[in-house]
Amino acid sequence: MRERPALTVAVTIDRHRAPTRWEDWRFSIVDVTIDEGQFGDQPLQLHDDGTVARFLHPGLRVELHTDEGEGYYLNLTSGQPSWFVWWRIDDDDPSMARPQMVTLSYHEAGRQLDAEERVDTVVLPPDVREELQAFTDAHYRPEPKRRVRPASFKAPDQR
Question: Does some domain include residue 55?
Answer without folding.
Answer: yes
